[in-house]
């Protein structure tokens, strides 16, 4: 995951240092850079007939997973109160599946082996974190809904969608209350049986609250938003539809105002 982070930063830096053309200047391009804590989970659909008891058992052991995403966006106004955004976004989605009540010699997972820790006295469980990392191109629109009475703070309704390409998928298993040989408590492994799909599409909706930081050119913003999946993340018999809620925190730069202090 660290390599993905560095790749995203390098790509963002390349875009930032690319010289602006006359055409770009005429469009008055603005820039946003943000980091986004997210909480995600999944909806499940099944291919084939499964008893309701099985579906209920899966529902009980799955829970949300927190992660960090980030984005670099370019925007321009096309009306006095409307903007168009396009950019790059690193999306980190997924969920956690808990396996508990493990006993001595129980199979933890085929990639891990069996429970062989005789020292544990109860409460032994494993969190299997299903992690999907995407590089996405969001295409978004916003409309300012705040009045002009407070020009230093603006509120925008933001909506649109993104198309994303899968960069990495794995499972990170964290053992609680026991360890395996060598005192290992964390395992990361691939999950080929998931049959992950390489392309996904999400709908976005949220609010963007901006506050002036310096001389009309630099603003800070927070953007609570929700990601709604339109496609499956995988094509196995148990199909995951990954949704997430996030809170972008970032900086919004409008270079056309950089000389206002003169």
Summarize the structure.
The chain has 262 residues and is mainly beta.
Notable features of this structure?
two-stranded antiparallel ribbon, 262 residues
What's the arrangement of secondary structure elements?
Blueprint: H1 2-17, H2 22-27, E1 30-46, H3 52-61, E2 62-63, E3 65-79, E4 82-99, E5 107-109, E6 113-114, E7 125-144, E8 153-176, E9 186-189, E10 199-214, E11 218-229, E12 238-253
Antiparallel strand pairs: 1-3, 1-12, 2-4, 3-4, 4-7, 5-6, 7-8, 8-9, 8-10, 10-11, 11-12
Describe the structure.
- With 262 residues, this protein is mainly beta.
- Helix content is 12%, strand content 57%.
- The chain is built from 3 helices and 12 strands.
- The protein has helices at 2-17, 22-27, 52-61, and strands at residues 30-46, 62-63, 65-79, 82-99, 107-109, 113-114, 125-144, 153-176, 186-189, 199-214, 218-229, 238-253.
- Strands 1-3-4-7-8-10-11-12 form an 8-stranded antiparallel beta barrel.
- A hairpin with an 8-residue loop joins strand 11 and strand 12 (238-253).
- 25% of the residues are buried.
- Mean pLDDT is 87; it is low at 15-25.
Sketch the topology as an H/E string, one letter per element: HHEHEEEEEEEEEEE
Number of helices: 3
Mean pLDDT: 87
Taken as a percent bin, the fraction of beta residues is: over 45%
Order of the strands making up the biggest sheet: 1-3-4-7-8-10-11-12
Percent of residues in helices: 10-25%
